[in-house]
């Protein structure tokens, strides 16, 4: 196929008079656009500090659904009146620079391709493209300091021309997935922080603290053996304040924390030989944002503890521990992993949705990743899609891949796991659906040194019952991540170029600009198991599942990969057949 029209599209810098736009004017799909249609707005030239960009592709994300449902009541919008100041969804985008303001001419060039990292900070205040900043469901828009001159500089990433438009748009959700396996927890005592060391008055252990005592600004000591007090006083920094307290009972902890930390919580809490799961549960409530609870002991707690799953995901609270008498042994990245275990067994709960598919695909594609990958999915259609996408890849990578659907068998998940791996427990479990009970139940089938990743966020205050004895006796890892950063997105682009990752496997359906409203409705209804990609520069393409392309667009369909997988060649064919020029 001669890609003359595709080449023309890549190099087209003409600016049409108007742009079609899907603004959000309030909560509900009925408030997207006007009467279910996009609006036309005159394109304004960029000022000296702006870029005019063309939107080439937009990935629809379930986060968009939350914004549509809540409108101005979304937490990121803080009660904004969208009827007067509308926004636009669409934070997963591929862009092309069309015109550059004169003050940006040394940094950007017409024709340059970009992706956006939507989680933007300005003066340490979180804003976001596709939320507070109107997003990508438009054909053209201006971009200025709100994106290009924030705390981390420009929140845009140059994109190599070898990367497809859908691939570039999908770098953001893929970055969120990849970031789930990077260390987000703080794993050493906080410099300048507030530490609380809580002992057990009946404890005779000879403790040491070989590293990290020089970091805190203030250390509170409760029920600490005299010999250990002397060790602490010898090893702290000269300016560290040491405050000894009387014994603090359960009902006094909240008041003590409020007085000692101005309500922020302790940056580091160290529990020495605790015996009560309930006591650990109460203490854990007062871990600060990015705080660490370090449990040191060699005997099991007397019961489970209710801990806040939401805070593990959103606040990166860390639970570490050791059976060693050296408290420092609990800290550090060497002891506290965040990556899937090499040659292990990995379990993905609720893996049939778009993000779950990405997690499973990453595990299969990872050269030093797990040998056995097990996915659970209750929806039969989604399970079938997952099977079609992943099974050929697993065979190619010589890995075992199985799907478990409890609706279709009387066999338990543990028996299913044992049948495949010879073990009733797994090395790693990734929770891809925001259900606290699933988090709780899955933790029970982890190996003592396993890892539980809470990828799907539940609200702060969502409690799950956990056996925290495994944290210090077996080195159990509890992790969670929310969103991604510029670096994560750059890594995904590099992996894509190296052939280590194929973001296009995530695509389930495509549509043109007019189909965006229907695409958002399909997203809300869960019509497609994978990602929906909107191509704003193409008008007439209705929302179409990839398996249905051959009925209406055989020339595009013939360029799909195995099992109807989206490819760069299919994208080129799409533009060749349906793009009508920048003035369409």
CATH architecture level-2 label of the largest domain:
Alpha-Beta Complex
Categorize the overall geometry: globular
Q: What top-tier CATH class of the largest domain fits best?
A: Alpha Beta
| Mean pLDDT score | 95
Strand content: 15-25%
CATH topology of the largest domain: Quinone Oxidoreductase, Chain A, domain 1
Domain module count? 3
Q: What is the β-strand count?
A: 26
Number of helices: 19
User: Helix fraction?
Assistant: 25-40%
User: Which structural class fits the helix and strand makeup?
Assistant: alpha/beta
Rg for CA atoms? 26 Å
Ends: how far apart?
23 Å
Give the full name of the CATH homologous superfamily of the largest domain: Medium-chain alcohol dehydrogenases, catalytic domain
């Amino acid at each position: 196929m001669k890609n003359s029209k595709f080449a023309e599209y890549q190099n087209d810098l003409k600016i049409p008079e108007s742009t079609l736009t899907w603004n959000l004017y309030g909560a509900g799909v009925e408030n997207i656009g006007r009467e279910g249609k996009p609006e036309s707005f005159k394109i304004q030239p960029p000022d000296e500090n702006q870029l005019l960009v063309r939107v080439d592709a937009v990935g629809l994300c379930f986060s968009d659904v939350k914004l549509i449902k809540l409108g101005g009541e979304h937490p990121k919008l803080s009660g904004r009146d969208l009827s007067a100041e509308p926004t636009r969804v669409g934070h997963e985008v591929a862009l092309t620079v069309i015109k550059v303001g004169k003050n940006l001419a040394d940094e950007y060039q017409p024709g340059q391709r970009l992706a956006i990292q939507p989680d933007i900070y300005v003066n340490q205040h979180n804003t976001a493209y596709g939320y507070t900043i109107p997003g990508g469901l438009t054909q053209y828009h201006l971009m200025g300091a709100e994106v290009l001159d924030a705390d981390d500089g420009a929140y845009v990433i140059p994109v190599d021309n070898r990367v497809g438009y859908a691939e570039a748009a999908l770098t953001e959700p893929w970055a969120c997935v990849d970031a789930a396996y990077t260390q987000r927890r703080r794993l050493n005592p906080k410099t300048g922080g507030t530490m609380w060391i809580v002992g057990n008055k009946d404890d005779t252990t000879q403790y040491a603290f070989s590293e990290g005592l020089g970091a805190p600004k203030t250390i509170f000591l409760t029920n600490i053996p005299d010999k250990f007090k002397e060790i602490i006083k010898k090893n702290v920094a000269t300016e560290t304040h040491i405050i000894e307290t009387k014994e603090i009972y359960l009902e006094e902890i909240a008041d003590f924390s409020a007085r000692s930390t101005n309500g922020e919580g302790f940056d580091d809490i160290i529990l020495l030989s605790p015996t009560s799961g309930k006591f650990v549960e109460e203490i854990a409530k007062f871990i600060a944002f990015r705080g660490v609870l370090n449990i040191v002991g060699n005997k099991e707690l007397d019961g489970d503890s209710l801990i806040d799953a939401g805070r593990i995901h959103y606040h990166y609270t860390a639970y570490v521990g050791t059976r060693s008498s050296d408290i420092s042994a609990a800290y550090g990245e060497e002891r506290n992993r965040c990556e899937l275990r090499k040659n292990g067994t990995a379990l993905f709960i609720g893996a049939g949705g778009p993000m779950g598919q990405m997690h499973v695909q990453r595990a299969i594609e990872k050269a030093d990743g797990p040998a056995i990958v097990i996915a659970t999915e209750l929806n039969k259609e989604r399970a079938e899609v997952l099977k079609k996408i992943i099974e050929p890849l697993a065979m190619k990578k010589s890995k075992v891949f199985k799907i478990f659907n409890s609706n279709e068998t009387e066999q338990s998940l543990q028996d299913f796991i044992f049948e495949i791996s010879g073990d009733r427990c797994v090395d790693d479990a990734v929770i891809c659906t925001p259900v606290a009970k699933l988090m709780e139940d899955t933790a029970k089938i982890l190996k003592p040194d396993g890892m539980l990743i809470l990828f799907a966020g539940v609200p702060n205050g969502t409690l799950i019952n956990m056996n925290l004895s495994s944290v210090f006796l077996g080195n159990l890892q509890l992790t969670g991540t929310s969103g991604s950063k510029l670096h994560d997105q750059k890594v995904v682009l590099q992996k894509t170029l190296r052939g280590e990752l194929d973001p296009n496997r995530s695509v389930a359906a495509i549509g043109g600009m007019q189909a965006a409203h229907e695409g958002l409705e399909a997203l809300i209804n869960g019509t497609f198991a994978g990602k929906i990609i909107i191509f704003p520069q193409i008008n007439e393409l209705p929302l179409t599942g990839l398996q249905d392309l051959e009925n209406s667009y055989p020339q595009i369909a013939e360029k799909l990969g195995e099992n109807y997988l989206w490819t760069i060649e299919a994208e080129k064919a799409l533009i060749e057949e349906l793009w009508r020029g920048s003035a369409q």
